[in-house]
Predict the 3D structure of the following.
Amino acid sequence: MKLTNRRLSVIALACASFLFPGREALAQAAPAATASPVPAGAATANVQKMAEGDESLSSGGAYTYDPAGRRDPFKSLLTGGGPKTGKGDGIGGILIEELSLQGVWKTRSGLVAQMAGPNSKSWLLRKGDQLLDGEVLNLTTNEIVFRQNVNDPTMLKPFREVVRELIPTTSK
């Protein structure tokens, strides 16, 4: 069956009217919105509330997110495993890698490890002391054992043990 130009134009018009409805169909589909004028005082009051930090106007609703123990999906996995930023003062702001064992002292309260930290500063550590990325797990007369927190999803345990020896043993 051969289509003539007239039949093609009728088919094209029918498709166009179906895809692109006329003014009547648009007027029926979306009724005209009536604009309600906002008083000038209300607009400036809203602007004043936003300037004061009232976030209820800009939040758009009362939506809250409960992570329920899951990680934040907007934080990078690549930067999460590195050293923590915002180091504090004292031994709680030092990484385990920055320490080396200088000596072990026996006191009435138990063993105390003398550690050399960054800038040649000396620190005294006892069992249970907290560092930036771990804690002192055990202390003997020859070594100190740290439990270092590791944020690596490929590891089975979220920590590893780091041993610093006073007199390193030579391997044969």
Q: What stands out?
A: DSSP finds five helices and seven strands in the chain. Strands lie at 100-107, 110-116, 122-125, 130-131, 134-139, 143-149, 159-165. The domain at 94-165 is CATH 2.30.30.830 (SH3 type barrels.).
